[in-house]
UniProtKB/TrEMBL annotation, chain A:
It comes from the Bacteria. Pfam families: TPP_enzyme_C (PF02775). Keywords: Oxidoreductase. This is 2-oxoacid:ferredoxin oxidoreductase subunit beta. Gene3D superfamilies: 3.40.50.970. Residues 66-214 form the Thiamine pyrophosphate enzyme TPP-binding domain. GO terms for biological process: cellular respiration; small molecule metabolic process. PANTHER family: 2-OXOGLUTARATE OXIDOREDUCTASE SUBUNIT KORB-RELATED (PTHR48084), BLR6744 PROTEIN (PTHR48084:SF5). InterPro entries: 2-oxoacid:Fd_oxidoreductase, THDP-binding, TPP_enzyme_TPP-bd. GO terms for molecular function: oxidoreductase activity, acting on the aldehyde or oxo group of donors, iron-sulfur protein as acceptor; thiamine pyrophosphate binding.
Automatic annotation (TrEMBL), chain B:
This is 2-oxoacid:acceptor oxidoreductase subunit alpha. Coiled coil: none annotated. It holds the Pfam family POR_N. Gene3D superfamilies: 3.40.50.920, 3.40.50.970, Pyruvate-ferredoxin oxidoreductase, PFOR, domain III.
């Protein structure tokens, strides 16, 4: 089995973005996932988001752990460097990469097994450090790649394909991200691209730790009756709190909705997050209220989606560490090595 | 029993209680001897505990420059009643015991073959100070003052050192000097000074410096251009990351903006530390972690990834004995095999073995060049003995013309000019491919990093032939490494001999001394100090030049010997084990004893005697 390069024949009428790229320029090689896998829709949404934001593909680094979800970075952004690391440890690799060059955009892709089971610790710590990244968990409630075992996000009582119930309490990554201080938090559904693309765009423009939990049904192992991560179940229980639009540029937008139904949040880079409210009393800038809201609705069996929390003025790990503006990987000997004069002085002090 | 008499050649041991503030007083003592121009080598012997348990500080004074541990104690400064019996026992016949005589002890508590020197330290302190913390701290300075009289140490030197130590806190200088003289004057008036052991001004230090190996390695990382340090605290490696932090704050903070040209992250565990290092190095920064054996165990999976994905990473392993509940504060060379073959699959790694702080600095800086040049993890194997003890060593040197060797990195210009880029393509025949940093070129040079399921152009494949092709290239790369790691250092005995010894790392000082001890017994020994793995071809030459080769190590299983036999296919019968592994540093007495024993049991006739 070798890789399948995608034919790069451009349709002359394909729309281009500000950089002159078409959507095809943001694609990768052909997916080898199961037909209908939710993960492929997320890849498509990432392509869409990067294209619409006119991001230079080579300025994005995509990192992942291990799993079907973690394989997907091969299937988008073919002109970006990618790193398929080890199971559950993408967050540390991404953190290191981010430290080395603060100028790139870091996109971490993971699965629910990768992040909530084996990698729960790294998930948590990368978020509490405020690494500037987009961290997407493609959440299907199972280990797809090892053939359908329950993961740590599977709901208690949910049944696997053979009818056996999951006995353990689920880990709610959104709840954890809120508690750990992520500064942009969204939940999407691979079956709702219209909602997902702007969520990803908002995360890409956000400075700080942006986390997206995207329910992404596994058609091979977790799409049956009795599963709480199947397409049908998620559609039935989806409770969106808002609908996001990401508007670039600094122009003030005209609000053409009834008062109280739209909220506009300006992020540090000047981009505007325009939120059409669905749940009228939901305030995505209030962390504690968001926690309460989520707990209450989750208890009713609802899957709350949308932009759940944002701190538009967040800082990141580089800010906390007070590192130089120039990326470390471009620093020269003169910037890094103190040289002989300093060493002679030090030698003298050590006698 | 005649009391021992020695000038500039004896061992003083301080028995203290952990957390009693004795460390800086003891250090003052050691430094005063150095300042008198006499080599002194201190060693901390401490428990895995913060307060209350016994600690020892041993100072070997040796004008002949024996810097290894000697074993035995000539003067015991017994400040810990808890360890009295064992401390008393460890004194050499004819040696001296200095103790706090405030509370009288029965004669059964002493030995008749030593000189007992009692001084009512507690009583003196209680009379002088009211504050309990002061009583505790100044007691230490008071005994240093008394020792200066007993051992004939120049008090002016001590005063200068106190002045330097409290430069920033002027007030403390006078009170410390006062305490010093309190002790000194008491001793001069009440004790027979000096005793048979004396320090006499000499000129045996030269331009050498005095520093811990961990600090030196941290400094080496600064000079080597490391910008990212990710670590998780573990004895005895913690002070390496702390050293890096200290020197970065001194040398790497932008004077105008105050911004830092480094990032140090205390990770949540060793998996995360090595993950961060690999991520940073993948992205073109120089990065390292510092840990010890248990941390290396946790890093195994990632080390394999870095090996196969060919990502530079520098790992300092400051070795210690045993697992976490083993002997974490005792020294050993016990991670040699773990490091050499770390991780799953067919992996081999580059190892460096510094002998002292000077080499810790050099090999630290070198490790970053090697890691970049070879695109692979590089281990620097220190141990507690050189890592956490100050040691006299050659001054640090640097060449301002030296530039970081970033290895084979394709630039945007290379890619623009249309140079063929295959991430795993061996263009030069040395097994080392080219890499690109992320973000280099808009349309060329991007690749997807993964373990081994890819071809020479980093395209996904699970074909056996491509896998094998890659594995063979990795072997070629390892051969290239042989030519790049530091060469072993060979020393010939004064006369021709068929006996050789191989040693490495912190055994060095004891080995040098053992060679002269053995020469005194008529056993001539050629030596080879191994400084890196893979082994340079000089190692093969050395072994074939000798009939019997002793491999001197500080572990139970003869790990370097195993590595030599496995990698070089030497005849095991030719390599004799000399193994020290009780957690204390190896001594010359031990090495010479073992070798002499083996020589006589093997009936090896030294060459000199065989010639009629
Ligand atoms: C250390 C380690 N243990 C186990 C595995 C086997 N493994 C591969 S993928 C996977 C689970 C992936 O689940 P998830 O992250 O949910 O990804 P999905 O396939 O569902 O997208 C496991 C257990 C591994 N690769 N590494
Ligand atoms: S097994 Fe499940 S997660 Fe994996 S590719 Fe198939 S559908 Fe997707
Ligand atoms: Mg999964």
């Amino acid at each position: 089995m070798t890789y399948l390069p995608k034919p790069k024949l451009h349709h002359p009428k394909l729309p281009t973005n500000e950089l002159g790229f078409t959507r095809r320029d943001y694609e990768g090689s052909i997916s080898t996932l199961c037909a209908g896998c939710g993960h492929d829709s997320i890849s498509a949404a990432i392509v869409h988001a990067c294209f619409e934001l006119s991001l230079p593909p080579h300025r994005i680094a995509k990192l992942s752990g291990i799993g079907c979800s973690s394989k997907t970075p091969t299937y988008f952004l073919g002109n970006s460097h990618g790193f398929n690391s080890v199971h559950g440890r993408m967050p540390s690799v991404l953190t290191g990469a981010n430290l080395a060059n603060r100028d790139l955009i870091y996109l971490g892709v993971s699965g629910d097994g990768d992040s909530a089971s084996i990698g729960l610790g790294q998930f948590a710590h990368s978020i509490r450090r405020g690494v500037n990244m987009v961290y997407i968990v493609e959440n299907n409630g199972v280990y797809g790649l090892t053939k359908g075992q329950f993961s740590a996000t599977a709901d208690k009582g949910a049944r696997n394909k053979r009818g056996l119930a999951n006995l353990d309490e689920p880990i709610d990554l959104i709840g954890m991200a809120l508690q750990l201080g992520a500064t942009y938090i969204g939940r999407g559904f691979s079956g709702d691209k219209a909602q997902l693309v702007p969520l990803i765009k908002g995360a890409l423009t956000h400075k700080g730790a942006a986390f997206i939990d995207c329910i992404s049904p596994c058609v091979a192992f977790n799409n049956h009756v009795g599963s709480t991560k199947s397409f049908d179940y998620v559609r039935e229980h989806n409770a969106a709190v808002n609908f996001l639009d990401v508007i670039e540029g600094r122009d003030e937008i005209v609000v053409d909705h009834a008062p109280g139904t739209v909220e506009v949040v300006r992020q540090h880079d000047g981009s505007l997050l325009k939120l059409r409210k669905i749940a009228r009393d939901y305030d995505p800038t209030d962390r504690i209220a968001a926690m309460n809201f989520l707990q209450q609705h989750q208890a009713r069996g609802e899957i709350v989606t949308g932009l759940l929390y944002v701190d538009p003025d967040a800082d990141d790990l580089h800010g906390y560490l007070d590192t130089a503006e120039k990326p470390f990987n471009q620093m020269t000997d003169a910037e890094l090595c103190p040289g002989t004069t300093a060493l002679e002085k030090l030698n003298a002090a050590l006698r | 029993m005649r009391p021992l008499e020695a000038v500039n050649d004896f061992v003083v041991k301080f028995a203290n209680v952990n957390g009693s503030g004795s460390a800086s007083a003891n250090q003052l003592f050691a430094k005063s001897i150095l300042r008198m121009g006499v080599p002194a080598t201190p060693r901390n012997i401490f428990p895995s505990n913060i307060q209350g348990l016994p600690t020892w500080y041993e100072v070997r004074v040796s004008e002949a420059n024996h810097l290894g541990a000697r074993g035995g104690t000539d003067l015991m400064v017994a400040m810990n009643p808890q360890t009295w019996d064992q401390d008393l026992k460890s004194i050499e016949p004819g040696g001296y015991l200095f103790y706090d005589s405030t509370r009288p002890l029965p004669p059964s508590k002493f030995r008749s073959d030593i000189t007992v020197i009692g001084m009512p330290l507690t009583a003196i302190c209680n009379a002088e100070y009211t504050d309990s913390r002061q009583r505790q701290l100044f007691k230490n300075i008071i005994y240093v003052g008394a020792l200066s009289a007993l051992l004939d140490i120049d008090p002016a030197v001590l005063e200068t050192l106190i002045g330097e130590q409290f430069k920033a806190k002027e007030k403390l200088i006078d009170v410390n000097i006062h305490a010093l003289h309190l002790g000194r004057d008491y001793a001069l008036q009440n004790l027979a000074c000096p005793i048979g052991l004396r320090v006499r001004k000499a000129d045996a230090i030269g331009d050498r410096i005095f520093i811990e190996g961990n600090a030196a390695a941290g400094l080496g990382a600064v000079y080597g251009g490391a910008t990212v340090c990710a670590w998780y605290p573990i004895t005895p490696s913690t002070s390496l990351a702390e050293g890096f932090t200290r020197y970065c704050n001194r040398y790497r903070v932008d004077k105008e903006t105050g911004k830092k040209r480094f990032a140090i992250v205390q990770a949540e565990d060793e998996l995360a530390s090595i993950g961060m290092v690999i991520g940073a190095a993948w992205n073109g920064a120089r990065a390292f972690t510092a840990t010890s054996g248990p941390g290396i165990s946790l890093m195994q999976e990632f080390i394999g990834l870095a090996h196969f994905a060919e990502i530079p990473a520098v790992i300092f392993d400051v070795q210690r004995a045993g697992p976490s509940t083993g002997m974490p504060t005792r020294t050993q060379q016990c991670d040699v095999l773990t490091a050499a073959y770390a991780s799953h699959g067919d992996t081999k790694h580059v190892l460096l073995f510094p002998e002292d702080p000077h080499e810790c600095f050099e090999m630290s800086a070198l490790a970053f060049d090697l890691a970049d040049r070879l695109q692979t993890p590089v281990f620097v194997l220190l141990d507690l003995d050189i890592g956490m003890n100050e040691r006299l060593c050659a001054p640090f040197r640097w060449d301002d013309n030296r530039r970081m060797d970033r290895g084979k990195v394709m630039t945007a210009e290379d890619l623009e000019a249309g140079r063929d880029f295959g991430r795993y393509l061996d263009v030069d025949g040395d097994g080392i491919p080219y890499r690109t940093y992320p973000g280099t070129h808009p349309t060329r040079g991007a690749f997807f990093t993964r373990g081994t399921s890819r071809d020479r152009y980093a395209r996904y494949t699970e074909e056996g032939a491509a896998y094998q092709d890659n594995m063979e290239r990795l072997l070629r790369k390892f051969d290239t490494a042989k030519t790049l790691v530091p060469r072993p250092i060979r020393r010939a005995a004064a006369e021709p001999t068929r006996l050789g010894a191989i040693y490495y790392g912190s055994s060095s000082a004891a080995m040098d001394e053992a060679v002269s001890l053995l020469a005194g017994q008529g056993i001539a020994l050629d030596t080879l100090r191994v400084r890196g793995f893979p082994f340079h071809e000089d190692v093969r030459r050395f072994v074939s030049d000798h009939d019997q080769v002793f491999v001197v190590e500080q572990n139970r299983d003869a790990q370097l010997r195993t590595l030599l036999i496995t990698e070089e296919e030497f005849d095991p019968a030719k390599l004799s084990r000399v193994l020290h592994y009780d957690g204390s540093p190896i001594t010359a007495r031990f090495i010479a004893g073992r070798i002499a024993e083996t020589v006589s049991s093997l009936k090896i006739v030294p060459l000199r005697k065989a010639v009629p």
